[in-house]
Structures are given as C-alpha cells and as structure tokens.
Amino acid sequence: QVTLVESGGGSVQAGGSLTLSCVVSGFTLDYYPIGWFRDAPGKEREAVSCISATDGSTYYADVVKGRFTISRDNVKNMVSLEMNSLTPEDTAVYYCASLKDGVTSWGQGTQVTVTS
After folding, report:
1. Nearest to 100 by CA among 28, 15, 39, 8
2. pLDDT tens readout for residues 48-105
3. At 10, is the pLDDT very low, low, confident or very high (cuts 50, 70, 90)?
4. DSSP states of 8-47 as a string?
C-alpha cells in the first residue's frame, strides 16, 4: 500500500520560512517523480514544484521560483520543500504526490498559513 505523509505545515508571518516534508512508504522513491501541489481558498489545485527521478531536474511554478526549493532523499524515501520569503498568497493546503506506474498517489495535506 502506497502512503505519503506530509508534515511541517503551520502558521508563519509574511517573510518567514517553513520546510515541508513528505515521507513515502509502499515503494522505493528512487525511480519515480514526486512533487508538491497546493489548494488555496477559491483557487484550483496548483502544481508548486516537482522533481524528476532520473536526473533530479526540477520544476517550479513561476510564483515560487527563487523562493522555494525542492529536494529528495532517496535513502529516507522522502521529499522536502523549503519555502522562504512566504507571502499571504502562499496560504494553502500543501500536498505531495507521487507518480508510479501511471497511478498518482496523494498525501493527506498539510496546512500552511501566512499572516501579514
């Protein structure tokens, strides 16, 4: 059974930082891409950042480029998202998601709230 468990969310003031973590179980993360998505109030789910399995290449949404950094630890079977210079517009529930054999698996989400 594939499970993804996020942690690290919380409430922070604008300009602050948070690091989200997602631990994967049920398969070895080494060979599969994984990413972070978010659901903000009144908006559609948005892809925030993803990292490939093959060469470690990364994708960032324009609105987070230069502020967020994704990384993966294949030994710990986890992915992290370091978020800096947070703004109220980053307030959302953040989910990690993996893609394995054509199936996308989602974590339960972690709330990030940025106050001005």
Report:
1. 28
2. 999 998 888 999 999 999 999 999 999 999 999 999 999 999 999 999 999 988 889 9
3. very high
4. --EEEETT--EEEEEEEESS-GGGS-EEEEEE-TTS--EE
25: number of Cβ within 10 Å: 13
Closest CA to 76 of 37, 18, 22, 3: 22
Pairing of strands 34-39, 78-83: unpaired
Indicate the residue type of 71.
Answer: S
Distance CA 29, CA 81 (A): 16
